[in-house]
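Entry 14. Two folds queued back to back today. First construct below, sequence then structure tokens.
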Amino acid sequence: LEAALAVENATLESYRAGVEVTLKQLEQVFERHALRAIVPEGEKFDPHMHQAISALPAEDKEPNTVINVLQKGYMLHDRVIRPALVTVAKAKDA
């Protein structure tokens, strides 16, 4: 990262490529140490792994289904270290 910042004539594309490589390396480290992302879109809400930030009516989804992930969560082995921040479907008001 320091080498990338030292380049004076860097383009947006070169920065993007550098960020992509850095992300890939970070994901490899996560995998090596059993750190997994929680990305529960479409799953049933689980209060042990998800934190509901909002609830919106969604005609095509069952109530308490995750319809949007605002921020990924993370698990280390089988322990949640950060719950996913989510929006859940709620029943349509009668």
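Second construct, same run, same settings:
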Amino acid sequence: MTAPVFILAGEPSGDQLAASIMDAVEGRFGKQNWFGIGGPSMQERGLASEAEMAQLSVMGFGAALSAYPRLSALANRLVQRIIEARPRAVITVDAKGFSLRLAARLKQRMAAEGWSAPVIHVVAPTVWAWGAWRAKSVARAVDRLLCLFPFEVDYFTPHRLAAHFIGHPEAFNAALMPRVRDNRDNRNNRSAAKRLLLLPGSRRSEIRRLLPAMHDAHALLAADGTEDSGVAATLVTVPHLRDEVAAVLGNDSGIEIVSGRDAFYQHLHQADAMMAASGTVTLQTALAGVPGVTCYRTSGLSAMIGRRLVRMDRVILPNALLRREVYPFLFQEEATPERLAAHVRAIFAADQMANQMPDKIGTGSGSGNGSGSGSETAGRNADELRALLRGGSDDFETLVANALAPDFGPQD
């Protein structure tokens, strides 16, 4: 009987990425028996989940401290389950705090048992934002690291860790292409009403901390409108948070609430601008060519520690990748309704001016996020990001399978 494969993800974006990893493995190396922790996309592919994925969703230093006993017990239980199952490989996807703790404990148990399996982590911890010295501890915990960004490999190879750039799956996502290629011109031919997309995050803590400011920013923008123009706002959330979002917004916000990936793509293509929580979604909006502003709020303790440890110019992925401000980032007390509205208002004004003077679009020079209208600059950023993140390939699963070949065997 073929040994199973352990795979773990800790949040919705990790669930989608892990599902792509599962597809890549089975496409090259045949059907596998999967167990671990994951969400609906992984379970659709046959994962037997040992616990609810939501148990791993912890944000902020204070929350992590309070959750430590529970997560430590879960890690110990998973280590025991892995030792009993003897999988052919152990794959963890993102959720770096839990994943690396699990990997370190598993390595100790493997040594004690006289048995081993390759421990593979997908999504490099952001040592380039949090401190390069952390790369050494990552190298001690795992055997192979699959990196989504090309510059990450060089942080880990000096520590003799087998690190591979596999591209970023969103750069291959066809659902993010039409807004850049086909819908950019169509957008300017719609009615005068501007379309604003609100993306407050996929965690309850993010909804509580960010959505009130986004709601009030929308109200400020709506007040700018006239009888012939206005702002039509749509908020995209995950299905299990829809009721909580509705409770925060109230009954008369004028903001449409939708949920699910299909709704996200549909409204992304229609948006003139967006407000988003920092995270993977900012890369998706950038690849789709949507201009906007990003923000984040956390506890006072987490903010204080974060300001000391994190390079704020690298928090937003498109900014870090292109080494310029693709999206303004408003952190903590900076994330006010007035500042959010001001950034969106500037995007609307730039697009309106570009529509009135189409011959001037893209003819000037500038710094930061470029010249021309907000949508034109966003489109150029999208093209540059996509080229950077595809790793010279047209297929993400091929890059993944190539990186995993030493652990799963030759091509069938």
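Quick look at the second one. The chain has 18 helices and 13 strands. Residues 174-389 form a domain with the Rossmann fold fold (CATH 3.40.50.2000).
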